[in-house]
Amino acid sequence: MTGRRNGRPLVPAYLSTGGVARPSRNSLERLSVLTGTGGPPPAGLPAAQHALLALLDGGSLTLMECAALLRLPVSAVRVLAAALTDQGLVSARPPVPVAALPDRDLLERVADGLRALKL
C-alpha cells in the first residue's frame, strides 16, 4: 500500500480485506509462520491477497513480518492469511511454544565452551 506523505495510507485497511473484519480461523497468531504453497494464484484474487501471496513466494514469513512489509495492520493481514489458508494457497504453522525453546543457560555454557576451545 502506498501512503501519503504524512504516513496515513491512501486506502483504509478494512478495504484491503474486502470489508471482512474477522478472520475465518482463530488459529493465526502474530508469530505464526506463513508459507506459500507455490501454486499459481487463481484469477480474480483481491489485490491485497495477491500481494501477500507474492510476498510469500519462495519463502516463509511470520504474520508480523508480512504486516510490516505490506504496511497493513496485523488484524488485516490475519484476515488475508486466513482467507488464503482456506483456499489452500498458504500454509500456516503455529509459533514454537516457549517450553520447546532450548534453555538459555545451556546455550550460554555451550557458547562459553566453544570460545574457550578457540583460544
UniProtKB/TrEMBL annotation:
Lineage top rank: taxon: Bacteria
Which InterPro entries does the entry mention? Answer: DUF742 (IPR007995), WH-like_DNA-bd_sf (IPR036388)
User: Which protein is depicted?
Assistant: DUF742 domain-containing protein
Lineage summary: Bacteria, Bacillati, Actinomycetota, Actinomycetes, Kitasatosporales
